[in-house]
Amino acid sequence: MSPGTARPASKGALTMSFLAKRLAPGESLIYRGRFHVMQQIYAWGALLLLGVILVGVYIWLREMVRLNTTEFIVTNRRVMLKTGWLSVHVDELTLGSIEGGEVDESILGRLFGYGRLTMRGRGDTHLHFPTMASPNAFRSAAEGARIAEEDRIAGERREPPASTPLPAG
């Protein structure tokens, strides 16, 4: 998938996400991150193995709420991370302020394609994403969007002003 296209919406394609409803005018979604199936296996495993006691039900419920209320996206202007349900917390970095990203993948993460991503912004700004599927693709989408934004801004600066014809005389 090229950085300029949005990841096809999975389940819930009929409803707009929390973050998609809050895009600025002219802002478009470039990439939507998602959780890896291993996070769901953890929740379902806890329910099946520990479900006999209330602890498994609690772990399953907590993980299902977390998985269904966390969003992370790349737009043509910023990278956003939304967590929470009753109390919502949204972090964002503008594309111009991104200085780099760090992907942390365990051995299992490398085998199954999941890991953690931390994006660094100017100053002491860090955006810590939860374990996600394809963290390198998410980082690539953010970098591609950042480069496209820089090229767009540089192109605007290079355009000469419209010349006005000189009077004949």
What does the model show?
The chain is an alpha+beta fold and 169 residues long. The chain has one domain: PH-domain like. It is built from 4 helices and 8 strands, in the order E-H-H-E-E-E-E-H-E-E-E-H. The strands form 2 sheets. Strands 1-2-3-4 form a 4-stranded antiparallel sheet. Helix 1 runs antiparallel to helix 2. The N terminus is likely disordered.
How would you concisely characterize the structure shown here?
The chain is of the alpha+beta class.
Blueprint of the fold:
Blueprint: E1 29-32, H1 37-50, H2 54-69, E2 71-75, E3 78-83, E4 89-94, E5 98-104, H3 107-112, E6 114-121, E7 126-128, E8 132-133, H4 135-158
Antiparallel strand pairs: 1-2, 2-3, 3-4, 5-6, 6-7, 6-8
Assembly level = single chain
Q: How much of the sequence is in beta strands?
A: 15-25%
**Counting H and I runs of at least 4 residues, what is the number of helices?**
4
* N/C terminus separation: 59 Å
Order of helices and strands: EHHEEEEHEEEH
Number of domains: 1
- Could you say which structural class the secondary elements and strand pairing correspond to? alpha+beta
Order of strands side by side in the largest beta sheet? 1-2-3-4
The CATH class assignment is Mainly Beta
Q: What is the correct CATH architecture?
A: Roll
**Nearest-integer average pLDDT:** 81
Please tally the β strands and state the result. 8
Query: Helicity level, as a percent range?
Result: 25-40%
According to CATH, what is the topology? PH-domain like
Radius of gyration computed on alpha carbons:
21 Å
Shape verdict: elongated
